[in-house]
Specification:
By secondary structure, this protein is of the alpha/beta class. Helix content is 29%, strand content 24%. It folds into 2 domains: 185 residues, Quinone Oxidoreductase, Chain A, domain 1, CATH 3.90.180; 143 residues, NAD(P)-binding Rossmann-like Domain (Rossmann fold, 3-Layer(aba) Sandwich). The structure holds zinc ion (2 copies). One zinc ion (ZN) binds next to helix 3.
């Protein structure tokens, strides 16, 4: 844990702009570029420049996130300017090390934390970095890991043990989101949990929760394929298809009328399902008196709740954004083998097929959860 605090604090100083040196003049790399919305092109372009305070990471695998799908469709416009290379969930090996960097070796396996804090705003001064006013992400605010190389300061690196595969290392970022939400909601051993939303983040969160509590767990979604993945990988988790069953009713019935200790909202919008409350209000209705609702589903809609339901329970609603050094926690659990990354990975495609990968996710959300892009060049 000490390592991770150091990493976070160092990042404040190392994320500012350095003079960049073009170590690799004329050296090209393959990169997926979003040239217009809904259209990727895989091109050869110069490797990124790096400063003496940075390392060059050779990306092995990158994972496609729900945010990438929004970015692809233009929902991040104008924050993201085209042409652009996304990718904020990725991992690889160190290819080159700047002269002022120590403690790393060429060829070392690393996962890259894409978050850059400003270090100057009120949140940063209070070390509450995920709430940074000017928070930026590699792969959202600057070119990211859907490319063969990325240069970053070492404070953004987390070493990955040998027994964790490159494919699994590419999921450390999204697992970190899950562990951060657990920490925000203070999930404890024995806690019972409901997760509204069983998509990419919801399932990473579910797996993170399972490392902390073996209490009763419910995951609610309306996409059958997602619920099937959960039933196959975590048969002890009670899945609820909200189109068929009333989740609040089921949760109360199966917790003997108590409700759960913590409910997570990972949907981010007000699903219109007949005779059901919206997911956020359902969270409030699902918890016990004095329970916690933790929201992390990102959306642009207003979602109404009835405050009386919250007040009568004297409950808390807290928010969770990105992660806060939980890379260490995610990596430690992957190393111990108590997460199930293979359950999440429904496809691995060479980066040349990125357009196909996005089409698959858009057209068949019931079939595909996490799709990895292979940048290792080993796929042939
Ligand atoms: Zn993501
Ligand atoms: Zn800040």
């Amino acid at each position: 844990m000490i390592i991770y605090r150091d990493n976070l604090i160092n990042r404040l100083f190392s994320s500012s702009e350095f003079q960049k040196f073009d170590f690799s003049k004329n050296v090209k790399m393959k990169a997926a570029v979003l040239e217009k919305y809904n259209q990727f092109t895989v091109v050869e372009k110069p490797q990124p420049k790096m400063s003496e305070n940075e390392v060059l990471v050779k990306v092995k695998f990158a994972s496609i996130c729900g945010s990438d799908q929004h970015l692809y469709k233009g929902d991040f416009h104008p924050r993201t300017k085209l042409p652009f290379t996304p990718g904020h969930e990725f991992a690889g090996v160190i290819e080159k090390i700047g002269k002022e960097v120590s403690g790393y070796n060429i060829g070392e396996k690393v996962a890259v934390d894409p978050i850059i804090w400003c270090g100057e705003c009120d949140a940063c001064k209070n070390e509450h970095y995920p709430a940074c006013d000017k928070l930026r992400l590699i792969g959202i605010d600057q070119d990211g890991g859907f490319a063969e190389y990325v240069s970053v300061p070492p404070s953004m690196l987390y070493k990955v043990p040998e027994n964790v595969s490159h494919e699994h290392a590419a999921l450390v970022e999204v697992y970190g989101i899950g562990f951060h939400a657990c920490n925000r909601a203070n999930v404890k051993s024995g806690d019972s949990i409901a997760i509204y939303g069983g998509g990419k983040v919801g399932q990473c969160l579910m797996q993170a929760v399972r490392t902390k509590t073996d209490g009763k767990m419910f995951v609610i979604d309306i996409v059958r394929g997602r619920l099937d993945i959960i039933r196959n990988s975590y048969p002890d988790v009670r899945t609820i298809n909200a189109m068929k069953e009333d989740p609040v009713e089921v949760i109360h019935k199966e917790t003997n009328g108590h409700g759960v200790d913590v409910a997570f909202e990972v949907v981010g919008h007000a699903e219109q399902i007949p005779n059901r409350a919206n997911p956020l209000r359902s969270c409030v209705q699902s918890i016990r008196g004095g329970g916690v609702v933790c929201v992390l589903g990102l959306g642009d809609e207003e979602i109404p709740i009835l405050f009386k339901e919250l007040i009568w329970k004297e409950a808390q609603i807290i928010a969770s954004r990105v992660s806060h050094g939980e890379f260490s926690e995610a990596i430690a659990h992957l190393e111990k083998g108590d997460l199930k990354p293979d359950a999440l990975i429904t496809s691995v495609l060479p980066v040349d097929k990125i357009q196909e990968a996005f089409d698959m996710l858009e057209k068949s959300p019931d079939k595909y959860l996490k799709i990895l892009l292979d940048l290792s060049g080993d796929a042939g």
